[in-house]
């Protein structure tokens, strides 16, 4: 971070409400690109050491030591109007990151799941994780050059999506396209929340 | 900078009886700002956090990112700094607190304005 711009890293004084959204997906699906395209600050990276005690199956070494994994997350920020800031966390979607997910999902409004049509099966884990955390979500196919283009119905069927789950196509390198994918998610969250809550 | 490993196991002590209920709920997106209290006597990590937040508010995640500290450590240090009066949580006043639907609607409008 350029120290000359240090004052620009802070939030405006009027911002008092933070919204957390997760940008989830398998390895190399474009989470970091998506976050970087939308963020008003240079995306930041945090690392968390995850300890997995009591794994269901002993690992091959038979060691009693807990296994630790370092998980890196990239995140970015968008200030909305005067009082709200939106944080986008790019989160890896493998099952072994389940402990991390519990912490991340707490307080999150929802998740946008990025998928790659050339390896849809790589997204099964992340969809499962998001559903188990009870997070509402939308799915965005990140368009990769050369990746197969399937009809929406086939992608829905392959991912076993509910009819109400939004499915869009985006290009994580493109700002407007990424904004539209995020709008799809927020619109879905609003629709999902509206009937139960009378503001 | 390398974080101190021992801090990872330090328990997050929750004490009661202080003014703001949100102060012990430190999420990645909890916002905190410096209060201007002198940083004398603080550990080096806490000094760095206090200095980073001196001129405005940041989320716990941003503090962790800027200072290359693990999030679990950052939460504990930020919590301590709130307890010691060096940081204060940035939260809406009860009268200004928007509902979830209002928040989502504002986010939606704000994103649409970016197209």
From TrEMBL, chain A:
The keyword Transmembrane does not apply. GO terms for molecular function: GTP binding; hydrolase activity. The keyword Nucleotide-binding applies. Keywords: GTP-binding, Hydrolase, Nucleotide-binding. CDD domains: Ras_like_GTPase (cd00882). Pfam families: ATP_bind_1 (PF03029). It comes from the Bacteria. InterPro entries: Gliding_Motility_GTPase, Gpn, P-loop_NTPase. Gene3D superfamilies: P-loop containing nucleotide triphosphate hydrolases. Belongs to the GPN-loop GTPase family. This is ATP/GTP-binding protein. It comes from Actinomadura rayongensis.
TrEMBL record, chain B:
InterPro entries: DUF742 (IPR007995). It comes from the Bacteria. This is DUF742 domain-containing protein. It comes from Actinomadura rayongensis.
């Amino acid at each position: 971070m350029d120290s000359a711009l240090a004052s620009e890293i802070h939030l405006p004084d009027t911002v008092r409400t933070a919204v957390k959204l997760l940008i989830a997906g398998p390895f190399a699906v474009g989470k970091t690109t998506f976050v970087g395209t939308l963020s008003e600050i240079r995306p930041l990276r945090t690392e968390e050491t995850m300890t997995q005690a009591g794994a269901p199956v002993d690992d091959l070494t038979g060691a009693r030591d807990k296994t630790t994994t370092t998980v890196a997350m990239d995140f970015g920020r968008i200030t909305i109007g005067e009082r709200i800031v939106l944080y986008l966390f790019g989160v890896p979607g493998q099952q072994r990151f389940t402990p991390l997910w519990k912490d991340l999902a707490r307080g999150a409004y929802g998740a946008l799941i990025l998928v790659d049509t050339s390896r849809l099966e790589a997204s099964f884990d992340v969809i499962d994780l998001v559903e188990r955390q009870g997070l509402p979500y939308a799915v965005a196919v990140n368009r990769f050059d050369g990746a197969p283009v399937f009809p929406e119905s086939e992608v829905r069927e392959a991912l076993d999506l509910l009819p109400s789950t939004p499915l869009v196509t985006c290009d994580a390198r493109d700002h407007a396209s990424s904004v539209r994918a995020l709008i799809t998610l927020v619109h879905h969250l609003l629709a999902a929340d509206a009937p139960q809550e009378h503001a | 900078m390398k974080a101190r490993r021992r801090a990872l196991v330090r328990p997050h002590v929750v004490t009661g009886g202080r003014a703001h209920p949100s102060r012990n709920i430190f999420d990645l997106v909890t916002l905190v700002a410096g209060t201007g209290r002198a940083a004398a006597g603080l550990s080096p990590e806490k000094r760095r956090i206090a200095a980073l937040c001196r001129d405005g508010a940041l989320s716990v995640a941003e503090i962790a990112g800027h200072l290359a500290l693990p999030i679990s450590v950052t939460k504990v240090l930020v919590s301590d700094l709130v307890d010691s009066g060096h940081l204060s949580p940035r939260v809406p006043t009860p009268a200004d607190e928007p509902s979830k639907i209002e928040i989502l609607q504002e986010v939606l409008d704000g994103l649409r304005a970016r197209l």
